[in-house]
Amino acid sequence: MLTKKLPPLNSFLSLVSRRASHVTRQQYDVIVVGGGHAGTEAAAAAARVGAKTLLVSQKIQTIGALSCNPSLGGVGKGQLVREVDALDGLCGRAGDWAGIHFSILNRSKGPAVWGPRAQLDRQRYREFIQSELLSTPRLTVLEGSVEELLVSETNPEQPGHHRVTGILLANGSHPVSASSVILTTGTFLSGSLFIGQSTSPGGRIGDAPSSSGLSHTLKERLGLRVGRLRTGTPPRILRDSVDFSLAVVQPPDGHPTPFSFLNTRTHCKPEEQLPCHLTYTTPGVERVVKDSLHLNCHIQEDAKGPRYCPSIESRVLRFPGRRHQVWLEPEGLTSDLLYPQGLSMTMPPDVQLSLIRQIPALHRAKIHTHGYGVQYDFVCPTQLSPALQVKNTQGLFLAGQINGTTGYEEAAAQGLWAGVNAARCALSMPTVSLSRTESYIGVLIDDLVSRGVTEPYRMFTSRAEFRTALRPDNADMRLTLKGFEEVGCVSTLRYQEAVRVRDSLQDAQATLQALSLSSNSWKKQLPDIQISEVKNTVMTGMEVLQYNNVSFEMLASAFPESLSRHMEFSQRLKIEAVYRPHCNLQKKEIERIQKEENLLLPHDMDYLSLPVSMSQEVREILDRVRPSTLGAATRLQGITPAAIVHLLNYVRSAE
Ligand code: FAD
After folding, report:
1. 162 by DSSP, 3-state: which?
2. What HEC string does 230-273 produce?
3. Best mutation site among 59, 80, 184 for ligand 1 pocket (most ligand atoms within 8 Å of CB)
4. Rounded CA gap, 54 and 28, in Å?
5. So what's the ipTM on this one?
6. At what angle do helices 408-426 and 77-86 cross, to 10 degrees?
7. Distance (Å, whole) CA 258 – CA 476
8. pTM of the model
9. Start and end of every tRNA uridine 5-carboxymethylaminomethyl modification enzyme C-terminal subdomain domain (predicted)?
10. Nearest CA to ligand 1 atom 14
11. What does each C-alpha distance from 285 to 133, 244, 532 come to in angstroms?
């Protein structure tokens, strides 16, 4: 996979412009508006499912651009990247191609919550995405701005229900028709940029906002509830002006772990990868923020910003007196620039310079581009179905930041799923959904459509009740087979690889299971391991592998004939053995819920006094709706499978 050569970018651009003249005369199955992280995954997924697809984006050069931090993955987010990859999406392979510093975050915790992450070379990432789109069959790319959505009433006797019929481009050319349209306008919908006291229209620095026509159609014509959110980005600093001797070096992992299940190595070799550096804010930073608040209109606005990726202004105002981490991250292998993660700011340019110079490693730093903030419209996502289709508008799908999320990974995951469903809708196939029990993508979409957002939503492992089963290592086993057999978005090549992995894992597990010895015999075979707490009982190889001090390599050296052929999967087998008992318990709970679907819930139940293991939100929903059966409770928006388990246990114990 990584041996391929990318075509020069110019060939992509010329192909796109050559195609443009034919575009408006055609009828498409799916049109995707916006070529960010949601839009590129959506367009590629729709085409993979078999739809004739058009991707329209304002500027061809910015397709696949990383608007803010040059990095991918992290805790919770890395799981999303692995799942997008398992469904044959683009971002995992793009990350392996463009990564220049790979690390696994959270390594001190269990592998279920490890966070695969990479620092990226911006240009390489964009080039990979563009090259993938270029070679995707059934996909056409057009440079242009979408001015309007074309919609019609589905039934005049049922006002308020619409059907999307296509788009209108800003240059006044003919309308372009399609059965499905996916909007992925990111931070561009009615976008305004903020720096110091000045404000200007824009979706990102150097880019115009999305047309007001689109916002108007969503709000006025379709009657959708729209809110306002904000985010910001730090200044970019010239690398040569930084005193790295005053920061702590953070090298990449010695053995980089690729994001993609198709890759066994990353494009950038370990010895070529670049370090990051860690430094901290000082009291001087806090003083500059406080002294310049009156010059900073972004921070005074009402719109909610990202709580988990806050600006330096929000950090020092929320936690005064603390020192805050600042990561100095390279923007590319040959780039002169550094991205100071943690220093997102919107104060005037001269104040930005005096602020960063309060940090010892940056005492003579020079700014290349100033930080700024952006405010934009988002559509309240409770108005969407789990297929990410707008409930009152057939054929209209939304994905990415427009749904109130923040981050490339969240956008990519929604984009892929919206692309799949928009294509299936256009091709008259039923829409498909992913549950919270099988994927982080399912958790993300369920959270959005059933609970909505009050601030930019980002993924965390704590949001997934079944996180021990939803691990980065097994995303292919959870999703690739389904993606091929039921969804239609996975290539034969990837499917065949997943089948090979599944068969090998099953074979290895069966061998380990059949390796059944008394604990005394195990101790003789493996004198170094301590399984003393177990009496002389019979234990299988899978059970022994659960022990902290036992590795698959140790078992394979004791039983080379039966196990050494499975060395390729040594880490996966170890992780599977450790989590299997807990996952089996959870699986049983899910099956128990399915069996108890018809359990009657007492009509006078005092839901508000249920144990605190159930959130206040869940108790309030149950109290308001008062479902008659457990099955009815499972179908309520905002009720998680974990809450249902608590409810079932509570009702049964009260009998
Ligand atoms: P985008 O990547 O924004 O892509 C939208 C695309 O749609 C663009 O290509 C645009 O040109 C195109 N487009 C828009 N309107 C039209 C139209 N009418 N016609 C044609 N094309 C159109 N994320 C974080 O996780 N943490 C952060 O701290 C953070 N800070 C950010 C700061 C700034 C200043 C910005 C701009 C973004 C920041 N992000 C941050 C957000 C991150 O960039 C997004 O989460 C991610 O890019 C969302 O992907 P998307 O596909 O939804 O939208």
Report:
1. strand
2. EEEECCEEEHHHCCHHHCEEECCCCCCCCCCCCCCCCCCCHHHC
3. 184
4. 7
5. 0.98
6. 30
7. 14
8. 0.91
9. 577-649
10. 185
11. 44, 19, 56
Separation of 440 CA from ligand 1 center, angstroms? 21
Ligand 1 centroid to Cα of residue 104, in Å, is 26
The CA 408 to ligand 1 mean position distance, Å, reads 8
Ligand 1 site: residues with CB under 6 angstroms? 33-39, 56-58, 62, 67-68, 145-146, 184-188, 203-204, 207, 210-211, 214, 231-233, 306, 309, 344, 374, 400-401, 406-408, 411
Work out which ligand 1 atom sits closest to the CA atom of 36: 4
At 163-188, the pLDDT tens digits run: 999 999 987 777 899 999 999 999 99
Q: Which residue has the tokens 């909505």?
A: 452
pLDDT tens string 217-245: 999 999 999 999 999 999 999 999 999 99
How many angstroms is it from 105 CA to the middle of ligand 1? 25
Q: What residue has token string 């690729």?
A: 258
Please report, rounded to a whole number, the percentage of residues in the chain having pLDDT higher than 70: 95
Whole-number Å distance, alpha carbon 127 to ligand 1 midpoint, is 17
Q: What is the DSSP string of 470-503?
A: S-GGGHHHHHHHHIIIII--S-HHHHHHHHHHHH
pLDDT at 66 over 50: yes
CA 471, CA 448: separation in Å to the nearest integer?
21
At residue 393, the 3 state secondary structure works out as strand
Please write the tens of the pLDDT for every residue from 507-554. 999 999 999 998 888 888 888 777 765 567 889 999 999 988 899 999
Tell me which H or E stretch contains 143: strand 139-143
- Alpha-carbon distance of 221 to 229, in angstroms, equals 22
